[in-house]
Amino acid sequence: AQSVTQLGSHVSVSEGALVLLRCNYSSSVPPYLFWYVQYPNQGLQLLLKYTTGATLVKGINGFEAEFKKSETSFHLTKPSAHMSDAAEYFCAVSDVAAGNKLTFGGGTRVLVKP
Amino acid sequence: DGGITQSPKYLFRKEGQNVTLSCEQNLNHDAMYWYRQDPGQGLRLIYYSQIVNDFQKGDIAEGYSVSREKKESFPLTVTSAQKNPTAFYLCASTAPLYTEAFFGQGTRLTVV
Fold it and tell me: Kind of pairing, strands A108-113 and A10-14?
């Protein structure tokens, strides 16, 4: 079975500082990996995804993530936090053999301090 | 505009009642999913359907039921057997050529 672990349920960063959200996964097959963002009382929006090819993936709003197979990690970063980055972030792995159903991590809530 | 529409946005249920959450998509996607979200637990899969008239249980299907009579629609019924139904419910869909899921805006269900 696939699983996703996000280290840290809450992260606090200062505006302009680096944002680093950690995600580790387990999968018996080459994984498809995703980061989603959720604003209060809304659905999830895709930030970026890794399927095949380049291991450094760039997404929307200045975020990027690097797939490291040896570490089974897919950490999300943004060089300079903005107040609008305050949200909850979810890492997910896709089970391609089962209709692309997603397994999610527990989420990390980001607080941005002015 | 193509997308997924969930209704209602807020729903209140009395104990012992069944309630149905609506999910409609006009993306022509084959697969649809229902997730439950509780604080600190991420999203957990309730049911999913890969084609019309077929669906499978997810990780937490007990107390829920679904139907898939049309490609566009995947309603979720929260039955009285679900002992702790208060949560945020999210519907999603995927297409064969795309790996990512598209989500609706969610329904917040509260038991009163």
Answer: parallel
